[in-house]
Design goal:
Layout lengths: L2 E6 L6 H12 L4 E7 L2 E2 L3 E2 L4 H10 L4 E5 L1 H4 L3 H14 L4 E6 L4 H11 L2 H11 L5 H12 L11 H16 L4 E6 L17 H10 L9 H12 L11 H9 L3 H5 L8 H11 L3 H8 L6 H13 L13 E6 L1 H13 L4 E2 L10 H17 L11 H4 L3 E2 L6
Parallel strand pairs: 1-2, 1-6, 2-5, 6-7, 8-9, 8-10
Antiparallel strand pairs: 3-4, 5-8
Helix pairs in contact: 2-10, 4-8, 5-8, 6-7, 11-15, 13-14
């Protein structure tokens, strides 16, 4: 048995994701586990479709077991996002961590990860931050001064950066899981035109939202689920439907409240507070906060965390349970083996959350609150509690 792990958002599951899944099988994986963000994604937005619909997509396209990445980590920056996700893959017994990157060289990414974890590199990056640079700019500046050759431009490409964060997580966790990287083909994440028959996630979300001939860029299984969710008025979810609610939450916050959000650096809470008092739209809020130092993606995550009530003082540095969203018979067999190891509590039914420790249950309740608020993002809003009544998706027949 060789278990491969994938970290994903599947927002939605498209042909590029299918190529990575095929790569896992070509690397000898008998089982594939995906850790997938829940109803909110790292861009600081609600996912286009619910986590249950996207988990079903994954299993219908060949993933064996889908585990939810709790919202605290799903709405984190790349480092914490990767650490939380990789820790869940390790708890699931994965021996390989498979991901796409621009370079396609796992060894090179491991070398970069080890360099970034050196204390002198960390110290120098912090010094550059004091000059007003963003974290990414400060790190890239130090990197450019220290490394040439194949490493020189490594941190300029988004999937290389995420791959390095995965490798850093492997080092920090001390797991024996080995990274395997497929060279990415097709468009980049934000490309506005298809390439080689593949559309980027950004383009697909825009096309589905506008109902613009998106079917050719998804598998039949994914397309069926998108059509079903749209017909039920459960998709596409959109942050615009809760814009005033987010602005209201931001306006009610004090500087002290902003200071308790995740990923707040000194002084940013005052900038957020002033912007919240002045802005009359979310885009206006983002513009008032954004600067050379503060990237738009970070600001969007902070705004969503404020709305959802997520604070930095989480009781755990790593997810404290495995919540299963979907599986097939292969995944069910794997889950039995995971249960025998007993590294983390496993939740296949909402009722099992009552057996969690008080701190873990607090995270579970935070997840439920975020799901209840996600339901307001839908074309036809749903009441609270739907995540408690939704059963995990089980596909009896393994897809070829």
């Amino acid at each position: 048995m060789l278990i491969a792990g994938i970290v994903a958002e599947y927002n939605p599951f498209h042909k590029g994701h299918g190529a990575l899944l095929q790569y896992c099988r070509e690397c000898g994986a008998s089982h594939v586990v995906a850790v997938m963000s829940g109803n909110f994604v790292q861009r600081g937005e609600p996912a286009l479709l619910s986590k249950h619909a996207r988990a079903e997509m994954a299993v219908r396209n060949g993933v064996d077991l889908v585990i939810e990445l709790p919202v605290y980590w799903a709405l984190s920056g790349a480092e914490n996002f990767a650490l939380g996700a990789v820790s869940l893959l390790a708890a699931a017994g994965c021996q390989r961590l498979c991901f796409g990157s621009e370079c396609g060289d796992a060894g090179l990414l491991q070398e970069a990860a080890a360099a970034l974890l050196q204390q002198d590199f960390i110290t120098e990056t912090r010094e550059r931050l004091k000059t007003g640079l963003s974290f990414a700019a400060a790190r890239n500046q130090v990197w450019a001064e220290r490394f040439g050759g194949p490493l020189a431009g490594l941190l300029q490409a988004p999937n290389n950066i995420l791959g390095v964060e995965y490798c850093k997580a492997l080092i920090r966790l001390g797991t024996a899981m080995q990274p395997c990287s497929m060279r990415r083909a097709g468009p980049g994440h934000h490309d506005r035109a298809p390439l080689a028959g593949i559309a980027s996630g950004t383009l697909l979300r825009r096309m589905i939202t506008a109902n613009e001939n998106w079917e050719n860029y998804l598998s039949a299984e994914s397309g069926m689920i998108v059509h079903r969710e749209i017909s039920l008025l459960h998709a596409p979810a959109a942050a615009g439907r809760i814009e005033n609610a987010i602005l209201a939450a931001l306006r009610k916050m004090s500087p002290a409240g902003f200071s308790r959000l995740p990923d707040i650096s000194e002084g940013l809470e005052n900038r957020l507070y002033q912007a919240a008092q002045a802005a009359v739209s979310l885009n206006g809020f983002y513009r008032l906060v954004k600067s050379k130092r503060y990237a738009l993606s970070r600001i969007r995550r902070l705004a969503m965390c404020a709305f959802l009530g997520i604070e930095a003082q989480a009781p755990f540095t790593l997810p404290p349970y495995l919540r299963v969203l979907a599986m097939n018979p292969q995944g069910a067999a794997l889950l039995r083996a995971v249960k025998l190891r007993g590294e983390l509590p496993i939740l296949t039914r909402a009722a099992q959350a009552s057996q969690l420790s008080p701190a873990a249950r607090a995270l579970w309740l935070q997840e439920q609150q975020s799901c209840n608020l996600y339901n307001l993002c839908l074309p036809q809003p749903l009441p609270c509690g739907t995540d408690l009544t939704q059963k995990l998706f089980y596909l009896p027949k393994i897809q070829p």
